[in-house]
Write a structure and sequence with these properties.
This protein is α/β, with parallel strands linked by helices. The chain is 41% helix and 18% strand. The protein has a seven-stranded parallel β-sheet, with helices on both faces. The chain has a three-stranded mixed β-sheet with strand order 12-9-14. It has a two-stranded parallel ribbon with strand order 7-10. Strand 1, helix 1 and strand 2 (26-31) form a beta-alpha-beta unit. The structure holds nicotinamide-adenine-dinucleotide and uridine-5'-diphosphate-4-deoxy-4-fluoro-alpha-D-galactose. The site of nicotinamide-adenine-dinucleotide has 29 residues, from helix 1, strand 2, helix 5, strand 5 and strand 7.
Length: 336
């Protein structure tokens, strides 16, 4: 039996495929390559020594998805496919609702038709909005999302709850990621933003490699240790391992479960810059810029539930996250 990985050529999907194969699972990927490249899949093959089966498929294409389920024995799905740029989602809300929510509905329909009722879904800490204080716990209220991207994650979480109410045979695990950074140890796969990065870590690493000249630090007058924003950065390979643990639980038990995947520790923008400088030996040129609209000040996880119920905890520290990001960036200055 295989795991269908939607969005498996993307940043988190490709790292998760490595861990799934390492744990003995057979993997089939469906990706439309709107934000990735088949080269990532080839490199996952290089790392694992396996030739991966993949389909160039948009998950909104019901017929194509039906064919994938007919051609493969799929017991479960890990669903990464979606658009993820917060700013772009404000400009193009319909694209985000269509791709993320529309795509998920078509996928769920195809799963139902194929009798496959086991799903792990990529959600985000963004569903907590800014109404809760960190550390964020899974049972805190959600709902005050501040952009269409965040709203798609929230609505999909609700759709998944409703599916289980309608049919208790579904086993669904919702994973709320904090801030994934880092890259596989091999330096062969990593984050590959198409345009100028919106997120902090890819911006820093592109400054380090000389693709961008200077980082803007968005605000140094917040009520934090050094005035800059605090986030829970988690190594993408730890995150990937969390999916393997979540999948095992999902296959064994029905019901809907929600877990934070974070380290439980907050790191400021300036602390991340210092760690990256140490890991890379490069000076990161930055300037203090105005606060960015919509930014929460502090966001980190309470990660105990995943430990208690999945036996998962993040292992890699911030220096290792920076070293691995740097290896990937240095070896692949232009990405894939
Ligand atoms: P990514 O863009 O690297 O990967 C997403 C993949 O999905 C890409 O390969 C893209 O080509 C594919 N895709 C998009 N729409 C598709 C469609 N309609 N049909 C088929 N394939 C499609 O992003 P990522 O960082 O790997 O994120 C994976 C998931 O995790 C996303 O759902 C994202 O919203 C979620 N997430 C990411 C972060 C983060 O900071 N990276 C944080 C929280 C949640
Ligand atoms: N930052 C800068 N300069 C930059 C980019 C970011 O100073 O060029 C700062 C931000 O102000 C923030 C911190 O770095 O304080 C982290 O910002 P990111 O954009 O890297 O990450 P966010 O926490 O804002 O958002 C990310 C994803 C969202 C997701 C959220 C929670 O982009 O999609 O994590 O998982 F919802």
């Amino acid at each position: 039996m295989s795991v269908l990985v939607t969005g498996g050529a993307g940043y988190i999907g490709s790292h998760t495929c490595v861990e799934l194969i390492g744990a003995g699972y057979d993997v089939v990927i469906a990706d439309n390559f709107s934000n990735s490249s088949p080269e990532a899949i080839r490199r996952v093959g290089e790392i694992t020594g396996k030739n991966l089966k993949y389909y160039d498929c948009d998950i909104r294409d019901a017929e194509h998805l039906g064919k994938i389920f007919a051609e493969n024995k799929i017991s479960s799905v890990i669903h990464f496919a979606g658009l993820k740029a917060v700013g772009e989602s404000v400009q193009k809300p319909l694209e985000y609702y269509d791709n993320n929510i529309g795509g998920t509905i078509v996928l769920l329909e195809a799963m139902k038709n194929a009798g496959c009722k086991k799903l792990v879904f990529s959600s985000s800490a963004t569903v907590y909005g800014d109404g809760n204080a960190s550390p964020l716990k899974e049972d805190m209220p959600t709902g005050e999302t501040t952009n269409p991207y965040g709203s798609t994650k929230l609505y999909i979480e609700r759709i998944l709850q409703d599916i289980h109410v309608s049919d208790s045979e579904w086993g669904i695990t919702i994973l709320r990621y904090f801030n994934p950074i880092g890259a596989h140890k091999s330096g062969l796969i990593g984050e590959n933003p198409r345009d100028i990065p919106n997120n902090l870590m890819p911006y820093i690493s592109q400054v380090a490699v000389g693709r961008l000249c200077r980082l803007n630090v968005f605000g140094d007058d917040y009520d934090t240790r050094d005035g800059t924003g605090v986030r829970d950065y988690i190594h993408v390979s730890d995150l990937a391992d969390g999916h393997v643990k979540a999948l095992k639980k999902t296959l064994a038990e029905n019901g809907v479960r929600i877990y934070n995947l974070g380290t439980g520790k907050g790191v400021s923008v300036l602390e991340l810059i210092r760690a990256f400088e140490k890991a890379s030996g490069k000076k990161i040129d930055y300037k203090i810029a105005p606060r960015r609209d919509g930014d929460v000040v502090v966001c980190y996880a309470d990660a105990d539930k995943a430990m208690l119920e999945l036996g998962w905890r993040a292992k890699r520290d911030i220096l290792e996250m920076c070293e691995d990001t740097w290896r990937w960036q240095k070896n692949n200055p232009e990405g894939f």
